[in-house]
């Protein structure tokens, strides 16, 4: 679907204190009886942003989206759209469209009729509907399929019809609830890129709900990680991955090892730590940049991504890296890389990811080997929460 090269995205209105958000959740709480589905949540989303709400099942993502669309009313707090309080406006009075998890198309209608449906309901004149439908068909590259019925399409094509239908009214804001849930992995990846291109080309604001962290990382400008009705961290994907705010975020996004440790001192952006359960001979750990909130004596976790950990038979000579030794407990072979699970003496399992640059037969490290794991002080993040 891509037609023009997409420039490097350097769009970051959330860093500009003067930027006016398109969407503002102001201390929004939603209760269902005694159950708190969304808990005093505040969040700003900006025009032309692709925002992903990510979290485990039941954390309140869909409820938040439904409050934005107008299908639910906040119990407390306000939802603002373009500065206007829309908390109590019905869905049809909002410049918002929502594409649902089950993007049910009308089975008896053709692709074109499905796309035209909302426009007809709005009373748009026929010639204008035709022009708009053609434009949408072209956008999702389904022109030749205009007269087919949904059952004559593949899953991915149906998905694109649903997208075209949600886009037809050119909503300021499109909300997508697990839009790619029904697709297989390959098609899902392809459609992710198509979604990004569409959003970018049309200059729209997308808010997507997903529990697939890879999807959120791929498509979005910023991710909001939710747990139990609260937003735990809101940041661009790279920042969430490299600088998770809490153990929960570190563990939820990507693969990670959390090493329990105690802070022994902090100085000039460096945090010195001793690993809990470390033997008398174990070297102290060092993390950089330091976490400002950690003070000497604090119990913390050091989060390390497996791809930042090197594995070797010999102790690394470089004294500037952190090094621990253990025994290979498990090896996961993924073709292009392998993940080694290495058990330290105290039972902690540390994961190391190594690219498979040589063939299997040449692989040097195997089960039960005693190995050294090492990582740079920059690779670990000290987490207090
Ligand atoms: N109408 C309702 N009445 C009672 N409880 C509800 C209602 N809607 C949602 N809930 C509850 O609120 C919580 C949050 O639901 P929500 O659908 O927002 O979660 P989610 O994060 O979108 O989950 P999933 O990824 O499974 O869709 C859940 O525990 C759910 O059971």
TrEMBL record:
Keywords: ATP-binding, Cell inner membrane, Cell membrane, Membrane, Nucleotide-binding, Translocase, Transport. The keyword Membrane applies. GO terms for cellular component: ATP-binding cassette (ABC) transporter complex. InterPro entries: AAA+_ATPase, ABC_SmlMolc_Importer, ABC_transporter-like_ATP-bd, ABC_transporter-like_CS, Mo/tungstate-bd_C_term_dom, P-loop_NTPase, PotA-like, Transp-assoc_OB_typ2. Its EC number is 7.6.2.11. It holds the Pfam family TOBE_2. It catalyses: ATP + H2O + polyamine-[polyamine-binding protein]Side 1 = ADP + phosphate + polyamineSide 2 + [polyamine-binding protein]Side 1. One of its GO terms (molecular function) is ABC-type polyamine transporter activity. GO terms for biological process: putrescine transport. Residues 23-253 form the ABC transporter domain. Transmembrane segments: none annotated. SUPFAM superfamilies: MOP-like, P-loop containing nucleoside triphosphate hydrolases. SMART domains: AAA. Belongs to the ABC transporter superfamily. Spermidine/putrescine importer (TC 3.A.1.11.1) family. Part of the ABC transporter complex PotABCD involved in spermidine/putrescine import. Responsible for energy coupling to the transport system. NCBIfam families: potA (TIGR01187). The complex is composed of two ATP-binding proteins (PotA), two transmembrane proteins (PotB and PotC) and a solute-binding protein (PotD). PANTHER family: PUTRESCINE TRANSPORT ATP-BINDING PROTEIN POTG, SPERMIDINE/PUTRESCINE IMPORT ATP-BINDING PROTEIN POTA. This is Spermidine/putrescine import ATP-binding protein PotA. It comes from Futiania mangrovi.
